[in-house]
């Protein structure tokens, strides 16, 4: 029997705070009540937010790059067929104890999947939305025009003017939330995620146009041990050798 009170006590919560240095553009498709073609996403209380799913996806991407750089074989996301590694069809490089997960005898799971999940293995980390701490009544609506570019001709497309809603620019808005590590989250996830966060410098849309650039005021205060670093450093070793 699963006791929810006991489970909640074993989950490790960590605070995360981002400061938006420019203006944020996280669109809410299908939203109404704004003149913008792409309104900014808000919660039920009207607070600006950065979805937890966006943070998780971006962090996973950065952690994948770091793990590959350390020599680990990483499954190909986001394709479901390439993320699930069947043991009877796996390349020899996946025949390592580090890719084995207790209770999953027919599949291997790379280090990233063991943290963020895959179509077979549930995620071991839960990401909350980052909520803007400023009162919504104090934030005016900002509409930014844009135009679709033809990359081949390097000219603007005709009749392709659009409007984006963004947060107020250059006011250093703070967005706060938490991430939660489940009891079965591997210990090497802490240094890997911490390094991944430090590689994230912008979130949301139109980053190339200068939107969504941020700095981290508070990162998770993970307790990282030498054993965690040593585990990550073994990426180039192949158990088959």
Describe this entry's structure for a reader.
The chain has helices at 4-10, 52-69, 80-83, 111-116, 189-197, 226-233, and strands at residues 12-20, 49-50, 85-86, 107-108, 125-127, 130-132, 142-150, 155-166, 173-181, 214-218. β7 and β8 form a beta hairpin. The strands form three sheets. Strands 1, 2, 5, 6, 9 and 10 form a six-stranded antiparallel beta sheet that branches. The protein has six helices and ten strands. The chain is α+β, with helices and mostly antiparallel strands and 241 residues long. The chain starts with a helix and ends in an 8-residue tail after the last helix. The longest helix is centred in the first third of the chain and has 18 residues, at 52-69. It is globular and about 55 Å long.
Lay out the secondary structure.
Elements: H1 4-10, E1 12-20, E2 49-50, H2 52-69, H3 80-83, E3 85-86, E4 107-108, H4 111-116, E5 125-127, E6 130-132, E7 142-150, E8 155-166, E9 173-181, H5 189-197, E10 214-218, H6 226-233
Antiparallel strand pairs: 1-9, 1-10, 2-6, 3-4, 5-9, 6-9, 7-8
Helix pairs in contact: 2-5
Number of strands: 10
Describe the global form: globular
Topology pattern, helix = H, strand = E:
HEEHHEEHEEEEEHEH
Instruction: Please mark out the parts with pLDDT under 50 across 5 or more consecutive residues, or reply none.
Output: none
Euclidean distance between termini CA atoms: 43 Å
Q: Beta-strand percentage?
A: 15-25%
How large is the radius of gyration? 21 Å
Q: Average pLDDT across residues?
A: 84
């Amino acid at each position: 029997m699963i006791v929810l009170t006991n489970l909640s006590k074993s989950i490790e919560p960590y605070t995360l705070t981002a400061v938006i240095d420019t203006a944020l553009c996280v669109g809410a498709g299908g939203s109404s009540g704004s003149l913008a073609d792409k309104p900014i996403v808000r919660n039920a209380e009207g607070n600006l937010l950065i979805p937890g799913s966006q943070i998780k996806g971006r962090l996973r991407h950065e952690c994948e790059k770091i793990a590959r750089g350390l020599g680990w074989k990483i499954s190909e996301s986001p394709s479901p067929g390439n993320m699930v590694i069947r043991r009877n069809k796996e390349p020899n490089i996946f025949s390592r104890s580090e890719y084995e997960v207790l209770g999953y005898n027919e599949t291997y799971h790379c280090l990233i999947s063991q943290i963020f999940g895959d179509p077979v293995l549930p995620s071991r980390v839960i990401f909350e939305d980052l909520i803007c701490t400023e009162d919504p009544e104090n934030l005016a609506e900002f509409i930014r025009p844009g135009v679709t570019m033809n990359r081949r001709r390097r000219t603007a497309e005709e009749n392709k003017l659009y409007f984006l809603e963004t947060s107020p620019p250059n006011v250093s808005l703070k967005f706060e939330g938490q991430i939660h590590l489940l009891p079965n989250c591997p210990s090497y996830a802490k240094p890997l995620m911490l390094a991944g966060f430090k590689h994230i410098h912008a979130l949301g849309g139109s980053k190339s146009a200068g939107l969504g650039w941020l700095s981290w005021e508070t990162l998770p205060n993970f307790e990282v041990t030498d054993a965690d670093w040593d585990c990550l450093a073994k990426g180039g070793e192949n158990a088959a050798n």
